[in-house]
């Protein structure tokens, strides 16, 4: 089996990162730098047509903001979108946080509007591609990528190839079961990693404690906000202030993450686990160390000794930088340099 040619596009690309709350667009150069960049809110409730129109508008804006020599050299469009998606057809299937998007053809209409061949993949796969070429996973061939923010997403590179499965939807590591009787997950099942170790899960647990009147300390630690306004950041801050309920919720999130990593190491024996996402980034080693300790203590000896668990290198623009690698890897033969 040969390695996939993970490589940036040899020319500038238009990049689009569609998220449940924000849309980001950029012109990305072959060295991974951004020649121009813009973002806006995702008007999810306005429906797919409005969101697609906003995406096209942002892409046209970043293209016209680059020098003419760069703009005319743009050779493709790379799109990062919330999963599940079907990369082969550019279809967005059923993202849990965007209920209006059901089987929406996305890459084709956007690519047609900007006049470029388009490649689309799940946000976590695009992030993995960015980290492989420009970030923390450079040179690695056996990698797990996890992103911990509102949700918990994953991507798998095994033996130098992105694991996609026959339909392009493989790698949803946030939906590993970590507790048979655990809380409901956004996907409709229960007890999944995402239902413990994500911003959504932390907020849900805090609201339940507040609504039950079981956390007077948490309520006062968070000041005047109502349960409906609680964010994961508030819960983390309340833990820092010593609140026992917040500490219990955050510890449970870290423990579920650590346990999942033991299973992931036993199954995939990766050389590297790269952890991105705003929640993991803000927690730093406080989030990663329990996972490192659990893997060392509980996983099989050889993979446990081999694996390194590291923070992602690329920040919020990982989906834009990764879009260049997506285009370079999937479309580079479509347009000779
Ligand atoms: Zn789930």
Helix/strand/pairing category: alpha/beta
Number of DSSP helical runs: 12
Number of strands: 13
- Assembly type of the chains comes to single chain
How far from one another are the termini? 27 Å
The geometry reads as globular
Query: Could you spell the SSE succession in H and E letters?
Result: EEEHHEEEEHEHEEEHHHHEHHHEH
Rg (C-alpha, Å): 20 Å
Folded structure, characterized:
The protein is built from twelve helices and 13 strands. It has helices spanning 48-64, 68-73, 107-114, 123-134, 199-211, 216-221, 232-240, 244-268, 278-283, 285-298, 301-306, 318-330, and strands spanning 13-18, 22-28, 34-41, 77-81, 85-86, 91-92, 104-105, 118-122, 143-148, 152-158, 161-162, 272-276, 308-311. It has a five-stranded mixed β-sheet, sandwiched between helices. It has a five-stranded mixed β-sheet with strand order 11-10-9-12-13, with helices on both faces. Strands 5-6-7 form a three-stranded antiparallel β-sheet. The longest helix has 25 residues, at 244-268. It is globular and about 60 Å long. The mean pLDDT is 94. Zinc ion is lined by residues 175, 185, 187, 189, 192, 194.
